[in-house]
Amino acid sequence: MEEASFSVLLGSTRDWFSFLFLSFSAIFFLFSLLLLLLRSRPCCTCELCRAYLNSTWADDFDNLSDWYTHLLRRSPSATIHIHVLDNTITANPDNVEYMLKTNFDNFPKGRPFSSILGDLLGRGIFNADGDLWRFQRKLASLELGSLSVRSFAHDIVSGEICHRLLPLLSSVTEVDLQDIFRRFTFDSICKISFGLDPGCLELSLPMSQFAAAFDRATMLSAQRAAAPVPALWKAKRMLTFGSERELRRAIRMVDELAGEVIRQRRKLGFASHHDLLSRFMSSVDDDRYLRDIVVSFLLAGRDTVASGLTTFFLLLSRYPEAVTAIRAEIDGAASGDASDCSKLRELHYVHAAIYESMRLYPPVQFDSKFCLDDDVLADGTFVRKNTRVTYHPYAMGRMERIWGSDCLEFRPERWLSGGVFTPANPFKYPVFQGGLRVCLGKEMAVMEMKAVIVAILADFDIEVIGGGGERPRFAPGLTASLAGGLPVRVRRRKEVSG
Ligand code: HEM
């Protein structure tokens, strides 16, 4: 009897402790959520913050970037602050130089960024700071700078154009060019990075599982970055709920496929292969780290190039005189094959047109860092410790004070001096970033874009359907992509087919 009452007492004490523990956990969770909400200051009622929170900016502008451009053009120092995002946004080249070069160490990617992309990118170069970043930067710049990798990449791109892209365009009359470029760049970057062919651009147009999972994972990660209250996605992640559950599933699939690629590469041997994974395998043993390095490269090299190509053809539809000039340059250069690597380098007008189109439509429209300690930017703007500081290439390409009164015109000639392509100061044109973390794939990207543009314009007339070029709308994402794609009519040119 005594034993029975003791076990009842024990049971009710255990229940009582469980109840206390659960209540304490719930209060702790709610308190943390409240703190996070307060820290992200979603309650500011100034005009800008209200316009942001209520999305009333969308009454007058097609894209958030267009609204920011409008505000930055109006600001005397080309710098604004959105309180609810605790985000200082600048289109001032002196500030950009300050954060990317002069005081680089005080503007790392920072913890908030790495938590947004950490699940997808892990410790990959895009998500790393400090020694982790330095190690990968050194490794990657050695590889991407080497002649053998460049010619390997050129051979892959040429093969993909001749054997897949051109036959595909010959077989269609109407197509979404953005979709085609995304498939093309996914195949190319997978071959360059892994030595693996996902075959996205086959005539039957299957979209690989890998590409689809990667797309979903980048899109859902980007949604985190746009949230005015980070605590919400963090809570959803903790509860594996909604978009966070979907993101977890997509990342698991990316992990499985990347893991399989790494295992295969190890089995087949990597010493004699030229792809980046094989090269990294000589210096890195840890498979998880290899996965992170390679996924960063996919992100870096795929959507950016596809985005640059899509808006290039969008702009050409508005500026047919540029098509004529490009064809004249191709014809002039083509005593040999214009797609030959050394011939591509001679195409100065095409180079200028690519830079000009990315001035107006940069693939990475804005890029954020986090200020480590209180600082003062070059224009005198004070930034508090832990503030997000964003430079905005999209707005910078549209600033009269940087590019003159014709800044909204597509004019490749502004990049030519005596017919030779002449780059601008990278802090005025941070399309590839600039300073110590400048893009490592710049040359590869320009080579790839030139090869595609030359091949398509030599053989095909491309007409954008529906004249959607005047006011493009961008879909939310880490890289700019057109909402609704770029539907085009494709016609083989008479002189080529005849
Ligand atoms: C038009 C095409 C491209 C554009 C506009 C572009 C732009 C950029 C930008 C803005 C960054 C800085 C991102 C950040 O730190 O948040 C970056 C970094 C980087 N890009 Fe590119 N990129 C392009 C193509 C490529 C390609 C084809 C590759 C190589 C396969 C590549 C490799 C990298 C790498 C490795 C970094 C990281 C550098 C570092 O953090 O030290 N990029 N790129």
TrEMBL record:
Membrane-topology annotation of the record: Single-pass membrane protein
Q: InterPro entries, per this entry?
A: Cyt_P450, Cyt_P450_E_grp-I, Cyt_P450_sf
What is a GO molecular function of this protein?
Answer: monooxygenase activity
Q: Which residues cross the membrane?
A: 16-38
Pfam families membership: p450
Residues that hold heme according to the record = 439
Q: Might you give the EC number(s) for this enzyme? A: 1.14.19.50
Give the Gene3D superfamilies listed for this entry: Cytochrome P450
State the source organism's domain of life. Answer: Eukaryota
Q: Where in the cell is it found?
A: Membrane
Q: Which reaction does it catalyse?
A: 4'-O-methylnorbelladine + reduced [NADPH--hemoprotein reductase] + O2 = (10bR,4aS)-noroxomaritidine + oxidized [NADPH--hemoprotein reductase] + 2 H2O + H(+); 4'-O-methylnorbelladine + reduced [NADPH--hemoprotein reductase] + O2 = (10bS,4aR)-noroxomaritidine + oxidized [NADPH--hemoprotein reductase] + 2 H2O + H(+)
Q: What class of enzyme is it?
A: oxidoreductase
Cofactor entry: heme
Print the keywords alphabetically.
Heme, Iron, Membrane, Metal-binding, Oxidoreductase, Transmembrane, Transmembrane helix
Q: Does the keyword Lipid metabolism apply?
A: no
SUPFAM superfamilies, per this entry?
Cytochrome P450
Q: Does the keyword ATP-binding apply?
A: no
A Gene Ontology cellular component where this protein is annotated is:
membrane
Similarity section: Belongs to the cytochrome P450 family.
Q: What is this protein called?
A: noroxomaritidine synthase
Organism this protein belongs to: Apostasia shenzhenica
Phylogenetic lineage:
Eukaryota, Viridiplantae, Streptophyta, Embryophyta, Tracheophyta
